[in-house]
Design brief:
- GO terms for molecular function: mechanosensitive monoatomic ion channel activity.
- Its main location: membrane.
- Helices cover about 55% and strands about 20% of the residues.
- It is built from 9 helices and 8 strands.
- A hairpin with a 6-residue loop joins strand 1 and strand 2.
């Protein structure tokens, strides 16, 4: 009976009453916020998976600009919603604990000033991320080269996630790069609407350029007749002519407008066709010409 009376008295005391009233409300509020955050993340993942599934089920070889932008916006909306939940939970805490908001004005001003000096980079990242999303500079699946302040070489890779604070890239070596948006100085989108494959062909100065131009024009025609190449090309490749002249070589340039992000694949296939065409016509490469030259010079005189 003593233990029962003590237990009954505990729940009717100040501590028990606080637990049953304010403590229970705090626990319910935290659980509701956690469930809401998980629900928001679940919705964002479902939306992203649905957009990605629509792309995979379609006949398109690359993602459209609308699809890439929608995936980025879905990620940002989920992040902002969770941040708003945190603010709402904090305000409800002050209400449950009966903390007057007016008493928080002075501490908030001091904390705000401290955060203003210490979190300048964070605010810069958030503002930069906002403009990246609204201006559609790049989106999910884009191939980009980002110039980052303090780093000499640009960060290149495929965008796998975009938030208001950071951009995550997957490099060609499989590395994941996390870059704060505020440190991005210049953005080069290599897969915006369309791309261009550029192929430079070095030929020896002794070669007949008219014959080489005819061969390269034939390569352009054969590229359009190739079923795999025709799906990646937006129009017929073009021979631009002589790009540069060196001591023993002449560089010709061929360009082709391709689907976004497919310029590297098209460039590799064009090089194979060019090498086969030049080899079939008996036009030696500059390296072969330079190795044959000493052998000819060492031939005995008749």
């Amino acid at each position: 009976m003593n233990w029962s009376q003590q237990w009954h008295g505990f729940w009717h005391g100040q501590i028990g009453e606080w637990i049953l009233t304010r403590g229970l409300r705090i626990v319910m509020l935290v659980l509701a916020a956690m469930l809401a955050a998980r629900f928001v993340n679940w919705i964002a993942q479902k939306v992203t998976q649905r957009i990605d599934a629509d792309f995979r089920e379609s006949d398109a070889l690359v993602r459209s600009e609308t699809t890439k932008h929608r995936q980025a916006v879905a990620s940002v909306i989920s992040w902002v919603t969770i941040a708003m939940l945190v603010v709402i939970v904090f305000v409800e805490f002050t209400d449950i604990l009966a903390i007057p908001i007016a008493s928080l004005v002075a501490p908030a001003a001091v904390i705000g000033a401290a955060l203003g000096f210490g979190a300048q980079r964070l605010v810069q990242d958030l503002l930069s991320g906002f403009f990246i999303i609204t201006e559609k500079q790049y989106g999910f699946g884009d191939l980009v080269a980002l110039t980052v302040s303090g780093i000499a070489l640009p960060a290149e890779g495929t965008v796998i996630d975009v938030t208001l604070r950071v951009t995550k890239l997957r490099s060609s070596e499989g590395e994941m790069l996390t870059i704060p948006n505020g440190q991005i100085v210049k953005t080069v989108n290599l897969s915006k609407d369309w791309a261009r494959a550029v192929v430079d062909i070095p030929v020896p100065v002794t070669a007949d350029l008219h014959t080489v131009n005819d061969l390269l024009n034939g390569v352009c025609e054969s590229a359009m007749n190739d079923p795999q190449m025709r799906e990646l090309l937006l129009d017929k490749p073009q021979v631009m002519g002589v790009e540069s002249i060196q001591v023993d070589t002449v560089n010709l340039r061929m360009v082709a407008r391709t689907l976004p992000g497919k310029q590297f694949e098209v460039g590799r296939r064009l090089r194979l066709l060019v090498i086969a065409a030049l080899a079939g016509a008996g036009i030696a490469s500059p390296a072969e010409t330079s190795t044959l030259a000493p052998a000819v010079a060492q031939e005995p005189k008749q």
